[in-house]
Structure formats: structure tokens, C-alpha cells
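Exercise: predict the structure of this protein bound to biotinyl-5-AMP.
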Amino acid sequence: MEEEILIKAQDKKNKNEILLYLLNNKGKYVSGEELSEKLNVTRTAIWKHINGFKKLGYEIDSVPRLGYCLKSSPDILYPEEIWKDEELKFLGNKIYYYESIGSTNEKAKILAVNGEPHGTLILSEKQTMGKGRMGRKWESPKNEGIWLSIILRPNLSPEEAPKITLVTAVACAKAIRKQGINCAIKWPNDILYEEKKLAGILTEISAEIDRINHVIVGVGINVNTKKFTGELENIATSLYLIKGEPVDRKKILIDFLKEFEYFYSKLEKGNFHEVLKEWKALNCTIGRNVKIIGKTKEIEGIAFDIDGFGALLIRKNDGSVERILSGDVSLR
Ligand code: BT5
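Solution:
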């Protein structure tokens, strides 16, 4: 069943300064007077906001004469936690943050058609109808992973759109590697650890013949899932299962967004070769015997390279070369 619970839809320029002030002074007492003077808000407004943050799970002490002290933050991907980072330039300048949604990609498509800007981020703590490619399902249990979509309006031709999947895969793998996890990219859209799937990417495009209207890039990262069952038991893994301890989702999310901006700007500036170089260093597909299961045919051979558009090049047993734009790869 599809349920949609929106917590907040907001522009970065209207971020909640009270929460940011508390986040930046975590563990310290700040007086109501100080907040009120610095942020130009009334004491009553502050009190109301503080109660709202407490409802979200922020642990805030209020002591007469001393003021307010943020003791701990809940494990939620609240937009201010992202805006706290001042390095991000265009990603998340507008954020839609859900407690629950059908699919962030589906929502992003509607928002993109309604004109939401480049870089808009759609985040949900849970998806009830998370999607993989070709109508497959993506399991997205509450608070256990990062389930997000980004609206992009790139200045690229439609045949260049697959480059965005490569940018995303590099950003995702880099953010995960920062945790000391030696993950690798499997062409085109998987992040694996020891052959098990840690993250998946779903890139969807709306285009005319010669022009992209928008691209939606969806990312699912299994962070704190403790157990996979059924079909996923032997094929999926999470950062928790690899590290043996809970991992801070906010940190992974922010690292991913920063890496994405970095590599996306390479793409925008015509330096896609730098993305490719990084992709090649992080991938586990090239050099392997593979079987590609496409919509209409199957191909077997050695994946020996990717080209400047991100297509996989396969040398078949008869020596001929095929250029693959999409499909499922099984590594042999
Ligand atoms: C993908 O498809 O890997 C793309 C996944 C994209 C998910 C994100 S979450 C945010 C955004 N909103 C969405 O609705 N989707 C995106 P594909 O390569 O087709 O892989 C799908 C297959 O992965 C399934 O058939 C399962 O076998 C497996 N799978 C499903 N859930 C999984 C999970 N949580 N972890 C690992 N594998 C999973």
C-alpha cells in the first residue's frame, strides 16, 4: 500500500536557524536571550520550535537561566542536518523530506514536471513501493538505509544520460569507502561488497529527440539493515553487516552529496574522462567474463573496457566486439 507522509518541503534559504544554532553548539547551553537576539526571533517562537524539535526526537535540555542544550540528535535525515554542511552548492537547495512514500523516484518525476529546480532532493525514511530497474522491487525499510532521488536538468544530449549513472556510482562508492569498506562498482548500477549488493542506482530520463528535459537519479544504500530475508538473504548486504556496528546515515548521505557535486561538475565542464578514470579504479566488471542479459538477447564474453559514453565493451568468444548500453550483468 502506498502511504505518503511529508514531514517538510523547504528551500535552503529558509532553513531553521534555531535548529542550526543548536546543532552547531551541540553539548553547550545557549540562552533564550542569545538565540532571540542573534536570530531575531521572539522567546515564544523559540520555545515553540524547541518543542517541535523534541517531537522529532532531538534531545534538548532546558534549564532556567542557562537556556537550551542539544544533547543528541535522532537518527533521521532531517534537512537541517544536510544544510549544516556549508560546502554543498546546488544539491539539496530544495529538499522534500518524507517519513514514508511510495517511491522517491516517482515523486521526483512529478515534482520535475511541476518545475522543481535542478538539484532538488527527495528523501524518505521508508519506501512502500521502492523501484529497481525494469519493474523490479527495491526493499526500503524504515530508517535502515538512504533512499533518495535527485532532480537534474543537465545540459547533455539524451545519449549522454548514462554518464550520470557512472557519476552517481563513483560518488556512492567513494562515500561508502570513506567508512573503510572496500566496495566496488558493478556496471552499470550496482555497488557490491564481496559480490553482494550494498547499493543500487536507478536513472530515469525524460527527453525529446535531441534534448533532455530532466533526469531523475535514484539511489538506495543499505546502511543499518541487520538482516535480509527471502530472495535478498544471499544477494544483499548492508554497512552494518559489514562493519558489525551501526553507521551514521547522515554522514554517509552528506559524503555522497559532496562527492556527487564534485564528479557532476566534472561532467558539466566536459571533463568526463576524469569520472571515467575514477570509475575504472573503483569497478569490478572490467577484465571479467560476463554474461549480459538484455531485453532481447544474451551476450557472453570478456568485458574489456567502457567507452567515453559509459557503454560496456564486450569481446565475444568469436573475437567480435559488442557495445552494451544497458542490461543485467552477471559476473562469471
Ligand atoms: C536497482 O535496480 O538496483 C535500482 C535500485 C534503486 C533504488 C532507489 S531507492 C530511492 C529511489 N526510489 C526508488 O523507487 N528507487 C530508487 P536493479 O538493478 O533492477 O535491482 C533490483 C534487484 O535488487 C531486485 O530485483 C532484488 O533482487 C534486489 N534488491 C531489492 N531490494 C534490495 C536491497 N534493499 N538491497 C539489495 N538488493 C535489493
